[in-house]
Amino acid sequence: MNGTSDDASPDEPAEPAEPAQRGERGAPAEPAVGVDVGGTSVKGVLLASDGSILAVHRLPTPSPDPTGAGVVDTVAEVRDALTAHAQANRPANRQLPVGVAVPGVVDEDNGLAVLSVNLGWRDLPMRDLLVKRLGTDVALSHDVRAGGVAEARTGAAKDASGVVAFVPVGTGIAAAVLIDGKPLVAGGWAGEIGQLLITHGEFAGQRLEEVASARATALRAGVASAREVASAAARGSAVSQQVWNETVSALADALAGLSVTVAPSVIVIGGGLALAGRQLIGPLGDELARRLPGLRVPELVPAAHGDAAAAVGAALLGLELRV
User: How do residues 200-240 score in pLDDT, each as one tens digit?
Assistant: First the structure.
């Protein structure tokens, strides 16, 4: 579900987008705006009542932005572009629900952007800043937890019940744990599995995401992307096969710890590494099962919402403000 490109002009109107795959569970009753603040771009989607993405608008992320003012203004620009699109196609007599997902450590319960190294944030009252600038209530969320909401409610795990985990493996690694569709927050610290320190073997002293992220996997193999590692491994490259197996093993260790702690029925794998499909899901599932003798092994599935997951999840959370 690709939207406009990163270099889209700020003056361009919100562009229409292809419909998102969507089930009936959690279907919104009115359009909503969801915004995902990324490291390079602020991406917004207009989510229709049937769950399709009506429009996408993207602007560059101002960075660093220690006061948050630049990001908040950019979010407002994205919201306004999407609202204009909605009103052009469906008259509205009130503001649309808005959800915003931001990176780093986020305390949704207290509306705080606790920490974002890339954007220079520390303990910013982000929800209050957004509410003041946008003039409406805002559902604030962490980007990975918002993505988890999208996958659990309307994506790859929409038919699952109980506990679901969403683990995007891209530039970094993180996890969202959702219980009956509600994300576990724990003051913003839940799900930081990428920061786990490996204490044994060849990679002792490194964090999980320094070994098993898509970026780290590509770097160890000396290529540009994790997809290239997967392709080379499939063609029989010994170096790529070793790197791929190391990544799978490290991920399986982390997912096993997650599994024995919260017992998810489904783990949704997203991010760049998931683009390998069965080449990742198959061996990762086997390694996970090997680490969980006599225990329930969660089903592993690839993410359905792609890079729109956080924005879609933010829109769904925004709709909850109207309930």
Answer: 999 999 999 999 999 999 999 999 999 999 999 999 999 99
Whether pLDDT at 5 is above 90: no
- State the pTM of this model: 0.88
Contact, 175 vs 167, CB < 8 A? yes
> DSSP per residue over 291-318, as a string?
TSTTSPPPEEEE-SSGGGHHHHHHHHHH
Given a cut of 90, whether residue 322 has pLDDT beyond it is: no
Q: Long-range contacts for 187-194 (Cβ within 8 Å, ≥24 apart)?
A: 187/107, 187/109, 187/114, 188/105, 188/106, 188/107, 188/108, 188/112, 188/114, 188/142, 189/105, 190/145, 191/144, 191/145, 192/105, 193/167, 193/254, 193/257, 193/258
Which pLDDT value is given to residue 16?
A: 53
Does one domain contain both 187 and 292?
Answer: yes
User: What is the per-residue pLDDT across 249-298, written as a single tens digit (0 to 9) for each?
Assistant: 999 999 999 999 999 999 999 999 999 999 999 999 999 999 999 999 99
| 3-state secondary structure (DSSP) of residue 13 | coil
Number of domains in the chain: 2
**Are 198 and 296 contained in the same domain?**
yes
Residues 60 and 141 in one domain: yes
Residue 10 in any domain: the answer is no
Answer yes or no: is 4 within a domain: no
Give percent above pLDDT 70 in the chain. Answer: 89
Do 122 and 167 lie in a common domain?
no
Domain that residue 195 falls in? 158-303
Identify whether 3 is part of a domain. no
- pLDDT recorded at residue 51: 82
CATH number of the domain enclosing 59: 3.30.420.40
Give domain status of residue 6, yes or no.
no
Residues 204 and 260 grouped into a single domain: yes
Question: DSSP letters along 215-246, please?
Answer: HHHHHHHTSS-HHHHHHHHHTT-HHHHHHHHH
